[in-house]
Amino acid sequence: MQVWRQSGMKPWPPPQEEELVDLAAILGFHGMLNQVQYHQAFVENADMKDTAGGFSVHARPEELKTFGDEDSVNSTNVEESLQRVKDNDPKLKELNLNNIKTISIDTLKEFAEALKTNTSLEILSLCNTRASDKVAKAFAEALRSNKTLKSLSLESNYISGTGILNLIEATNENQTLIELHVANQRPQLLGVQREAKIAELLKENKTIVKLGIFLESRNVQVKVHEILERNYDEVRKDRMAVSNGTKED
């Protein structure tokens, strides 16, 4: 796509990917970004011209992905993965243990303990692993020490409102986590007081731009959305400052 100026003049260059993403943030559309767009723009900070997803100049669909149900088999070796986290394996950037219901509570807590000193792992998924409040508490303690993890998923487990509050409060310690997913717990309802507390805690957080959680209160939903939008805008400004060489250390 080319935008032409007056006759005889050279065309304007097509808009760049980052410019379109930034415009979406300014207009309040950041919630419409998919995982591919977000990860490439902020985690990888990569050139998005020839990759799937994103606000591309030429419209094209994102490649269709298939996902198994919650009972699908995850063949990841738990013991081996735990050892790699403990050993701080520099090649282990992402670990998916979703749907492995045979992991004991003690083993999940070992992962949390190992995370305290791990400086390599960036994405950890533990959805549908029967994690409880004890596990949430262990990971909350880990988040207070770990400064490398960017995304933590604990959806579809047995974490109560208290456990979720512990996790969110812990993210304020180092201000490094970008995504936290804790939706679809049993029980799912948090209650008005806990939801209000979540919004209060998030006001102090400057890094989370994606929060997977079920909130019943419309008022809290709006507050949380505004906070995530604020954080997203700050990330955008920081990225632009780095690009322009004006960001202060």
From TrEMBL:
Protein's GO biological process: actin filament organization; myofibril assembly; pointed-end actin filament capping
Gene Ontology CC: cytoskeleton; myofibril
GO molecular function, one term: tropomyosin binding
UniProt keyword list: Cytoplasm, Cytoskeleton
Keyword Cell inner membrane (UniProt): no
Subcellular location: Cytoplasm, Cytoskeleton
PANTHER family: TROPOMODULIN, TROPOMODULIN, ISOFORM N
Name of the protein this chain belongs to: Tropomodulin
